[in-house]
Amino acid sequence: xxxxxxxxxxxxxxxxxxxxxxxxxxxxxxxxxxxxxxxxxxxxxxxxxxxxxxxxxxxxxxxxxxxxxxxxxxxxxxxxxxxxxxxxxxxxxxxxxxxxxxxxxxxxxxxxxxxxxxxxxxxxxxxxxxxxxxxxxxxxxxxxxxxxxxxxxxxxxxxxxxxxxxxxxxxxxxxxxxxxxxxxxxxxxxxxxxxxxxxxxxxxxxxxxxxxxxxxxxxxxxxxxxxxxxxxxxxxxxxxxxxxxxxxxxxxxxxxxxxxxxxxxxxxxxxxxxxxxxxxxxxxxxxxxxxxxxxxxxxxxxxxxxxxxxxxxxxxxxxxxxxxxxxxxxxxxxxxxxxxxxxxxxxxxxxxxxxxxxxxxxxxxxxxxxxxxxxxxxxxxxxxxxxxxxxxxxxxxxxxxxxxxxxxxxxxxxxxxxxxxxxxxxxxxxxxxxxxxxxxxxxxxxxxxxxxxxxxxxxxxxxxxxxxxxxxxxxxxxxxxxxxxxxxxxxxxxxxxxxxxxxxxxxxxxxxxxxxxxxxxxxxxxxxxxxxxxxxxxxxxxxxxxxxxxxxxxxxxxxxxxxxxxxxxxxxxxxxxxxxxxxxxxxxxxxxxxxxxxxxxxxxxxxxxxxxxxxxxxxxxxxxxxxxxxxxxxxxxxxxxxxxxxxxxxxxxxxxxxxxxxxxxxxxxxxxxxxxxxxxxxxxxxxxxxxxxxxxxxxxxxxxxxxxxxxxxxxxxxxxxxxxxxxxxxxxxxxxxxxxxxxxxxxxxxxxxxxxxxxxxxxxxxxxxxxxxxxxxxxxxxxxxxxxxxxxxxxxxxxxx
Amino acid sequence: xxxxxxxxxxxxxxxxxxxxxxxxxxxxxxxxxxxxxxxxxxxxxxxxxxxxxxxxxxxxxxxxxxxxxxxxxxxxxxxxxxxxxxxxxxxxxxxxxxxxxxxxxxxxxxxxxxxxxxxxxxxxxxxxxxxxxxxxxxxxxxxxxxxxxxxxxxxxxxxxxxxxxxxxxxxxxxxxxxxxxxxxxxxxxxxxxxxxxxxxxxxxxxxxxxxxxxxxxxxxxxxxxxxxxxxxxxxxxxxxxxxxxxxxxxxxxxxxxxxxxxxxxxxxxxxxxxxxxxxxxxxxxxxxxxxxxxxxxxxxxxxxxxxxxxxxxxxxxxxxxxxxxxxxx
Lengths: 801, 329
What we know:
The complex is a heterodimer. Chain A is an alpha+beta fold. Helices cover 26% and strands 28% of the residues of chain A. Chain A has 23 helices and 42 strands. In chain A, strands 28-31-32-38-37-36-35 form a 7-stranded mixed beta sheet, sandwiched between helices. Chain B is α+β, with helices and mostly antiparallel strands. Chain B has 2 domains: 2-87; 106-326, Bira Bifunctional Protein, Domain 2 (BirA Bifunctional Protein, domain 2, 2-Layer Sandwich), CATH 3.30.930. Chain B is 43% helix and 20% strand. Chain B is built from 13 helices and 9 strands. Chain B has helices at residues 2-18, 22-33, 38-44, 54-87, 106-120, 134-137, 149-152, 169-178, 219-234, 280-285, 302-310, 317-320, 323-326, and strands at residues 124-125, 131-133, 162-164, 183-192, 204-214, 240-247, 250-260, 268-278, 294-301. In chain B, the strands form 2 sheets. In chain B, strands 1-4-5-9-8-7-6 form a 7-stranded mixed beta sheet, sandwiched between helices. Chain B is rod-shaped and about 130 Å long. Chain B starts with a helix and ends with a helix. At the A-B interface, helix 9, helix 12, helix 14, helix 15 and strand 28 of A face helix 5, strand 1, helix 7, strand 4 and helix 9 of B.
């Protein structure tokens, strides 16, 4: 919202307060000043110039060569305007000036061979209007050399203030002035509303009937006759222009002025176009179409509130007037509307129509029902001032639904308890009075106040505490620099995730964060989808069912910039619908946290000690085992994977801990990668983090260090090629005593010499007993058993024997 | 003769101790151990020794030979090894065999830093779901059904009652419903807004929520805690201010700004967090008596904080996961 400091001075005396003080105080009090626009700065180096002489430009028909005096010197200036003439006072932009409209900086320039030291400006160039027919000709009494901003009384500062939705009362100059009166302890004065009324009473000239008093508790109509529709006087135009509004005519300008003065939206109807000279406030009813002031036809909902005459709708209540009753140049008689509408009714209508206006913006936040009469009178006063006109006596005040003013209590000890700081009773009282509260009762312990009718946001004690605190100043409340200790149990939900991240970092994996939204097509491939009702685009319309699409998108992005060797992981939530019906409860969907880690490209890219070596599935299983053994009691990678993984992976495997499945992985299928333009192998593992967390080791216990020697035996078998090393290992484990602690595969060999479809696997068996030294015999016994079992079960042969 | 042997032995030891390299060792060999060397000469003269003395002298001679030969061999080996290490050239400017150490995403790193500060101040860490109900995200937080504050939040709805949470504040409600005061916790997590993706905004981001409820929690303590936080996070000499603001779930409400001066640009105030005293309506909603307990709450965006800290001006780069970006942190 734009606020003019000059305008504010009509209500509070700010002459001795700097703009920066005003800005700071407002901002601290919750009315954040986002921009400060110093008008005088815009007109720097623009002065009143006196046109001494005008000659034809020697080389151009349409240009003139002028001599302009700035009070001291004469300047040669080339001018293209047809209306330039000797003896005029003009806005003369000197070299160095920045033209307000367009921001061009003036320099000495040669125009068709003649040097021009500046420019004579048009209204449009000065940003003061649309006129570009010719230069702006000023009052001949103005003294040349005066700064343009001074001469035209343009010195003003415009503040752009962000108003939070609770502060409807601050959406006007008087609203801001009231705030400043409290902040700087100033007197707030409302303009006097005095004018002559004559002729008939308003009630005799028109009538108002409210059919929906819930949504329109109050409606004031005031009649003004015999008005002249014309341009507004300068002062009024200047006020409106200063806050970026375009003057239209005296009537529209006055209603706009009052809106920005006191926050009450007004509407002026052409009384002669109101059927039956009557206003009826009622619901739109079925199938209502209505053409608004902006010439657009709008379709209304049956319960949208309308302002109608005896026959037809004439305005959408609180939002916008209609073409059929708008003030035109021929209008003679007016009905000024000043009403209070139910905020939620206006909000609903405005939302339905997708139409937000200065009026609806204020009504939907809550206007002041008690200012309506003042605002109507203020408008008629100004209309009379600007266009003569005859004001009917009194006004029609339909107020079927009297809005009672709230009372509220404030206990001083409660104020202290919330703030942790004592603000004196007199300070509290003064602040509240300045904000318009009326002190009804006071004692040593508490105050009772009546809440002003414009403060819809104040209902409770805590609301009063906030008022006092923000006007007193948050920055004056001390910071307690020691904090009290609470000894409740400390919990860290994220500790496990942090550990996972650190382990994966140490293995060379970088963490990524990807979008939680996917397209329907992609999301559907990974589970039962949940869709957004209001997606931004079809690309981001469904909640992710898997982390895989995000990973592949990231890999694809990287391949595009030639980063092809990647080790990435993500920890994130995935969502799946579990019920058949719509989601109406937390049971209807699963939100689970997944870990995905992936490797693609080369393990090593051309180094002096090793050539390019593409990553393969053993890199992946190695990473996974290294990682998991840090947090689980034991891990097995098993090819007995689930269907789920087989559909998505080649070389798919399951991850198991004590026979519980904790995840799966493998090489992602080419078709899947191709969907994301990824044309290289991607190895990845997906783990359900809650499962992993559930079985992770939370407490570690020290194992005594071995005091007796270990004994090793090596053995190599020739086996069928499709027998896995795990199969062999589990058989050896099965037949061995508890002296055997480890079996390590240390060599794989395949060759014609072994026979077709044969391979050799070599194992090292590790034996020990933690309480004594082993004897040769017992080791030998286990070793022999193992060999025999493998030979028998897998039809294996001992190699090298 | 025995004396001569002893003398030769002494002379050998003496010579040997002076040998510094293979050349002088070779000289030593020629002098003592060659065919015409001193040791051989002594063996030559054995034939002149009397029969009685021969065994004794012979034994002494043999010992001399073993002694000199073994000492010689020992030194030779030692010198040759030394020579070898001089011969071998090691180019230490070759790149070593590097191992990659990954890193956490900078959002996580920033969050870690924030978590650590608040842990030090005695806060626990809790989490809550991203797919939330309207009740936790709005209703329990004192957003009336058609309050204009909802205009400020453009929400992704899944049904009319379920949505992607727009802030981490619903976790406050969950925590207060689950546990009794005193409660002191931060609640980080991902949140969603229906905003078009641009340099300035993304449809998701991360927040940290803070909550402290006990019998004597005050606005002054809220300020103290947050000041302690910004000083630790941005540096002890950071300039800050508190402004009044509005949130449905806190009252009084405030926003905290810090003075921010990007390199080569004009300084300005920048909002870093919203905060306030927990609104009594919220406490009533979760069954806590606001006459007995008071509380404060705060919330801050992590992306914005991280971007400020690392000088990033386009939020999208955080979610592109470009390796050239990831490996910088």
